[in-house]
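Q: I have two molecules that I believe assemble together. Could you output structure tokens for the complex as a whole instead of separate predictions?
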Amino acid sequence: MSETLGNDPALAGLAERTPDARRWRLRAETPLVRVARNFAESRVAVFGLVLLVAIIVAAVLAPYISPQNPYDLSEIRIEAGELPPGAVERADPPRQRFDIPIDPAAPGVQQLALNGAAPFTVVTAEVLVSDPERIEVRLTGEPAGAFAEVGRLRIDGVPRGAELTVGEKHSFRSFWEVPGADLAAFAVVREGGFEGTFELEVDLRGAHGEAIMTHWLGTDSQGRDMYSAILYGLRISLSVGVLSCLFAMVIGMSLGLVAAYFGGRVETVIMRIVDLQLSFPAILVALMLLAILGQGVDKVIIALVTVQWAYYARTVRGSALVERSKEYIEAATCLALSHRRIVFRHLLPNCLPPMIVVVTLQTAHAISLEATLSFLGVGLPQTEPSLGLLISNGFEYMMSGKYWISIFPGVALLITIVAINLVGDQLRDVLNPRMRRDG
Amino acid sequence: MPRNAWAAAAVAAAMFAPAMAHAEDLTIAVASEATAMDPHYHNTGNNNQIMAQIYDRLINQGPNQELLPGLAESWGPTDDPTVWEFRLREGVTFHDGSPFTAEDVAYTIARVPNVPNSPSSFAIYTADITEVEIVDDYTVRFHTATPYPLMANSLSTIYIVSADIGEDASTECFNDGACAIGTGPYRQVEYTPGDRIVLEANADYWDGAPIWDTVTIRPISSPAARVAALLAGDVDVIASVPTTDIAQLEDNDDVNLWQGISNRVIYLHIDSDREVSPHVTAIGGSEIENPLRDVRVRRALSMAIDREAIVDDVMEGIAIPAGQLLPAGFFGVSDTIEVPDYDPDGARALLEEAGYGDGFAVTIHGPNDRYINDAAVAQAIAQMWSRIGLETSVETMPRSVYFGRASDLEFSVMLVGWGAGSGEASSPLRSLIVTNDADRGLGGANRGRFSNAEVDALVEEAMQTVDDDARAALLAHATEIAMDQVAIIPTHFQVNTWGTRADLEYEPRTDEYTLATSVTPIE
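A: Yes, here they are, computed for all two components at once.
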């Protein structure tokens, strides 16, 4: 059986008789449990929290769950660039090159055996000079296993003024592109006959290579697996966001508390610096700093801390001013405790709830700021893209219809920020008594 | 379709009303705007392509940078190889109606080295001229201290201005239009930095009145925005169509694409000079003696680059693999240099031989807004070097930051491009390859500080050789040695793509200029 003690929701229904039934024991709900219970009242917020936890877990475990390390340049291949979602990355198709020396002055048939591997073994070139203006060439070869399909056949070294009877000359390069399902037969023709000998350079490439892996979200222009890149990008984005917020909070909170506690000139100086800082647009200050500092995760964090600490200082000062006039601080002062102890042991814990809200929301802000900076090309190095840089890289491809390079990292960023904001909003409701719906 | 109908209507109207002027305007979007309207202020393609329409040169450059008579009808060295004589075109007038004479040539040559605050002066082209002798109104002689075979090439870069603008015509005076008096096919009407340059046809142009009445040149730096502007019909011609959009635009009937080889080679400068290079370390970061001084290491780096893959996969096929300083067909190019084969195994073996079997760490620096796909090329090279065991990283930055730092030798390996303004091999050789010597204006852009006495001597000799064939052979030989010693690692030659409306034709230019005079309606 239980009994309600007053109206305090913190105590509601939580007094119960101990088993020995002689004394009432008050088992007050700890603040944490209370917060958790209130938090859970919003299903959307719980959904956000679950999402956020999932994202964090994915980011932390990225090296174990991603199929590729997108930051290891030796693992990614430019040849696999811009593959659409679900495409299979294949190894370079086998390639063969041989030179066919041709002497137009020697009529008759010439047989040339050229060694090959894949896609064709034992390639033979048959050169037939039948006419001073026309030389027939026939390439034959034994298909080698599975890869005996011709992907492309280029023939270079065609003398100036001469033409091939098949295929087309490349619009600005010297070679001819010859279609050939299985090697080719063609003729070199030159009006007015040929001058001297020449060598045809055949560059033959198979159609397929061995399958390496499937890219479920496609690849970017450098051949990075988008799924892996997004996981690693989340890792950077989250750690930059969280770290910069923590540093900014420590700095901002200390200064804000000191300002509120000591008041007077100290407060004036600190709060005017805060005003000054807040009067500049964050993105502008961060851009300037990064232009000076250069690229790197550490530098991005420094820039973000610089633009964000003032928010914390101002918030904490507000609540500290209220707390400072309360009796418990007076009591602590009367006990002649040191300033440091009063500020950090008495004042600080009572100012924390609003800070938790600010930290959460500012983390989301820091992540989007980092993405903005990367999008603008300052911030992180090209070879270690965060979400912003991935979006920026893909932006160039929007017109050409390669949506996946930009959209997927964009969606990942969006989900992350929405999840953090859902959690943050609910925390604000829970921790701010005036907004308590059950109060 | 309606646009074609309009064009047809216009043609019909022109046929039935021959008295009516053929009035048509043209709007061009370029990637970067001119830094000033002073033709002698800044030697850069973005400026020169505007100037080439307002001003003439004594010798103009054709689409393939061939030398064509401009304000000079004929030219050549006199019996004394240190004196060149130019016969000027008679009856040419400036935009203000005053006649063009030898005075204007002398004035221009005197003005060129004296433009204040010039970021990149044209003085390199006039420095060798010791005296301009005015023989009569239409004959000029240029004197030099030593034989100067490049006289014609050099003067084909200098825009002739009117002597009437006075001794101290400032860059500002050109910007506001008062001094902008040339003889070219178009006259300057409006210059609004960041927005537009408006040109108007010079109906009295000596080579015939231009086709377009008014030409508006707008800078649109974002490639996607440029394409969008063309598709929307806001502009008629765009420069630098991004390679990523080419495949799709080829299928679009409203747009024509025009492609042409550029004189611009994209290459890596390698620090082959300093004992310790700032961005080359042992794996792990400890300082090592600069391995890039060893030619075997440089060769290995070159062999490790799959140029075909860069062309096919980064440039979408719109480039040409490069093994030397200029594409085939240019003056002074070697016939014997082949594009190095991609050979990662050979590269690894060479590194092993040089004592770097375990690799080292290197950072490639590059711009991210200067050349076609520059950042992506740098990353692709980094991938390829990673495959031979080098720990390679890439740092790219906007060109405004990049080039200053590169010239201050802050980097070890840097991606750069070089367009041969004079259209022949001495331009890259003298700027990029010969030993850096600021006093003599040599090796000014030699940011790897490569130095080879034999190459220096050959280039020096070529610069004294007036005979074209002999000079071409010397330049080719110098290039062969430089490439054998891997002074730089060329990767590809740019191929530029212009986009126009479906009823226009663009004649591609190797100098990458986008000119209204190269745009013609398709009949």
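A: One point stands out. The CA atoms of residues 94 and 156 of chain B lie 19 Å apart.
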